[in-house]
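In the lab's daily routine, each protein ends up as an entry in a very long ledger. A line of letters takes care of the sequence, but it says nothing directly about the fold. The fold becomes a row of whole numbers, each drawn from a learned catalogue of backbone shapes. The protein below has been through that process, and both of its lines are reproduced in full:
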Amino acid sequence: MKRLLAALPILLAASLSLGQTMSQRAAVQVSATVQASPPRITLAWPTISGTTSLTIYRKLKTGTSWGNAIASPAASDLSWQDNSVTVGTVYEYRLVRVSNGATGTGYICTGIDVLPVDFRGKVVLLVDNTIASALNSELQQLEQDLRADGWGVLRNDVAPSATVSSVRGIIAGHYNADPANVKAVYIIGHVPVPYSGNQAPDGHDEHTGAWPCDGYYGEVNGTWSDNSVNNGGAQRPANRNIPGDGKFDQNNFPNEVELQVGRVDLFDLPAYSLPYVELMRNYLNKAHNYKLKSWTPQARGIMFDNLQFVSYPLAASGWRAMGPLVGPANITTAAQSATPFYMLVNNNSYLWTYASGGGGQETYDGVLTYHGAGNVGSIHNYAATNMNGVFNMSFGSYFGDWDNKNNFLRSALASGQALTNVWSSIPGWYFHHMGMGENIGYSAWATMNNTSLYAPLHDGWQGSIGKVHLGLMGDPTLRMKMVAPPQDLTVSNSAGAAAFSWTASIETGLAGYHVYEFASSGSITRLTTNPIAGTSYTNAAIPYIAGRQYMVRAVKLESGTSGSYYNLSLGAIGTAAGAPAPDCAGIVGGSALPGTPCNDNNPCTTNDAWSSGCQCAGVAPAAPVISSLSSNGPVCAGSTLTLSLSASGSGTLTYSWTGPNNFSASVQNPAITTVSAAAAGTYTVTVSNGCTSVQQSVNVAVSAAPSATITYGASPVCSTAGSIAVTRTGTAGGSYTAAPAGLSINSSTGAVAAGSSTGGTYTVTYTVAASEGCLAFSATAGITITEATSWYADADGDGAGNPGVTLQSCSQPNGYVAVSGDACPNDPLKTSPGNCGCGNLEPGSACDDGNANTSDDVIDGTCQCAGTPVNADCLGAPNGTALPGTPCNDNDAATGNDQWNANCECIGQVIDCLGTPGGSALPGTPCNDANPLTVNDAWNAQCFCLGEQVVFDCAGTPNGTAFIDACGQCAGGSTGLVPNPDVDADGDRLR
């Protein structure tokens, strides 16, 4: 009996997007082409309408942040070249695009001819013990495949009834024993499922609670609590989470997830006709055949986005992933409202798929199940068809909670060629690493640990969402591209050396083969430096040891839409013929074999190894070698003496120094600060490795430091002085310089020649050159040279001197002045004869002509004294200013602007009614009295502005004749209207 319930998406939009969907805008589909010479990576992306900006970032694959942008291509660009790359390095790029206001991101992992990964680490294989026996041969084959793919295998069979903490304890034990190598957890079957959190990633309130949390098995050292969440109301009982029920509180991982985790659990899928064990067997066999490349999917993807009507880019993670992994041109965009997804992939091969739709619920035999998604399909559809998508991403309500009957997410693995499935959108998964040969578990690990490196964290409506519900359904060791392996490796004894031969791989385009050796620890060691071209290999340095396991793997340079890398096939494993013999320690099949490490208990030997005769012997260390011994001597007293030693040798080297003045030291390069003369002599060092030693010496000289002072006598010094000597104390033999230029100084004696020096202030420096380890020394003194000036005799005391009588001096002599040019040296009033001669006044000079009727007497051009005759003005003043045309006062208040006329009469202008002298506002002239009821305004005799009173008719005309007629209108006069009388007195008028 089945009851079907269709679940609608939480948030709806008003209409579907035309052209590029919201999810396509939120994702940049990046692909890459590469070349090795010169090294270049070219990124490309499809066009998106409305693009306004593009920004590119780059980091190493191991980097934890993006740093600053490395490029900002034009918005119209569809590719960009990076020429600053190196062959063999793995890079990641982030491309951010803004189009129509929406931000999209894309990521790619790329490189050029990246070398192969030989050893991928150790995988903890957890097997449901209820199916272990029935699947023994398949599980043995799985372990063989894992080892052949470079994994060490740590298997544990676990009861479904075990506690999740006990299962995690098994994993933690393996990890803590070898944290550098334990990398992944592969869960086979219905191993106990951890639950954690109190959230509804699909947005359904009734689905809020704890969800399955396989990441708990990958996070091995954090603290998981079970005491705070108290939710007993979830629709499905398994989602209810209350304190102490064994389900954890965390929505997010408490620490970084250490291990990759993937699960293949086909338990409780009754929609399939086959039982649990057979479904598991089928999966293991198809995964095995995939790894052998017995079948190869088409390198293409399909996008089935049936949630476009939700106003969020829920399918963006699918677009981001498939772009670099199959190339944008190889992605089929399906019509989500037409043929259902399960029909599109039925017997149709796709390497990658993304399918989303509204999640479906079904009650199956009384149990609520999450069985499908709208127009994507259901478990019943998958059970009846061949779901031939290999690596799958899906999204819809409910079924991301995968630990339940007939669960849609898990069910894909039981159909067709499907090998993995994830619930991707909230959060989004990032698989771009697989384009460079990484296993899918690596991308699962990166996604679980993604906090900000790959943005966005999710493509839904939540501001934030926990990640504990992330789960990889499928084998975490799967890689995207496989190489057909070689077959039938045999290892034979060739004169004591191991001789390898094998059957060639059917793969075309191989680079060759690599040969490996297995260690008892589970790790592998590559024995070949470069790929072997043929199908046999012998190396005399590889001894033949019966019972030892080896492996040969085909190598192929893969070039795709992400880049190029050397890809390895699974290995053909072979064992050296013969029964295992006791090793050098007497243990049958033990690891103490000739050539392997041992301990001869001699602390003075290294690289101890078993010999062919099973003797443990090491290599005695050679004596240390002193390659150089020196000092910085000779050194100056008071400075630092440094002893420098370069030595090499095996083991830990120690140093012992001895020297003068009871010196000793135990460091490699000792130093003595503030040395004195007592430090001079021989220094000896002994270098030891604890077993042997070597000794060497070096001589060091110590010199006295130079010291001196210099001074000059009284300063400033006049240039009339002779030679000026310096007074020096202390170290002799130095040289003298002066600054600035202009001082005449003897560089050997320091004597200054004042007469040949330019006046000024100088600094004299006495320098003793560096010698015998002592730095150069200098002392300074100041000296000022004052240049003598010329002075001129001033006998007449007029301040100008006689140029014919001079004296040189730095100070003014009595009777002398600094200014020359007195051509009349005995005339105190003149310095030149002028026009009238020495002793006489010059023209223009004041004088007295002795005439009382003149004034302003001056020497004229003939050197005679003459005055100006006196004249009277209008007021009778001699040479006065009251002249015709000049102002005066006629004492009449009614006039203004009074002036003397030609007859010396003081005459003014009449002031008008506005107070303006000579103005036009006179009585009888027009004015404006500002009264609108008057006309013909004029000034009267008393300067009042007065007008005539007027009467205005009904038309506003002064003294007009218009009037109101019997009908009440203004007529006549200036109106132009003829009055109409109301002849019958009824108020009407003729029209």
In short: Confidence is low (pLDDT under 50) at residues 1-18. Residues 487-575 form a domain with the Immunoglobulin-like fold (CATH 2.60.40.10). The chain is about 10% helix and 35% strand. The CA atoms of residues 272 and 384 lie 8 Å apart.
